[in-house]
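Worked example (supplementary).
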Amino acid sequence: MTNSFALDWYFIALILFIGLYCMLVSRSLLRQLIGLEIMSKAGLLAVISSGAFTNNLSLAQAVIITMIVIEVVVVAAGLALLAKNFRINKSVDIWDLKGLKG
Amino acid sequence: MTYHTLLFMLTTICAGAAVMAGDLLIGAIMLALVSIGASLILFDFMAPWAAVFELSVCAGLITVLFVGAVSLVRASEDADARGRVKFLVLPLAVAGAAIVLWFTLPAFFGALSSGAVSASVNNPIGITLWDIRRPDLLGQTAMLAAGVFVIKSIFPRRNKFK
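After joint prediction of all chains, the assembly is encoded as:
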């Protein structure tokens, strides 16, 4: 079980790195959200892996359901911001977001 | 190699493909595949409630939102279209990270596994969700209301007579 737990966390760390890399190198707001989604998937898998390790899956599932609800709201708000930015600046570049101030 | 490890591997590969995809639509579809992989892992962990939520909300609703956004901005120039090299370098960066993690991560597993045993009472999901974690449900409702408020403030109603 411990070996499987270690291997799970190895892949979780890799998924987290992929999401972080996407957020660091990209200037597109859409790709930033894709990176955020990938990082959130890594967090979700970390919670369920820990829940399975401690034989407490119910609590892990409850936390994951909360995470998914928050994830949906964040993505919806981010995409709404993207649509607004695109309508005003005709661009999805994240640096153009400063044009939305005021 | 077990089915469990294979699922983790496929999810990691799909995550890499979502980042490296030149076309944003393919990136959104790969992200949906990551969600499907995550929900299969959740099923494998015997967590059907979370798996169904993940499959319906993340692989369904969020993918629809992403595809809608991609169709809106697809005609415009992709901000990252010029610098594709930084995305093509990703497999190299992941390989480097994998080597570094292989040597550094095991040192933390002892602390992780000993710290994780604190909550050991295993209640049914219904009792956990409705009784023990009831403030979470209140927080979820507040979060949804906040999301509606954010979208309403981003897209204010236009005044016709202005």
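Two points are worth noting when inspecting this output. Helices of chain B lie at 3-20, 24-44, 48-73, 85-88, 90-104, 106-115, 125-132, 134-154. Residues 124-155 of chain B form one domain.
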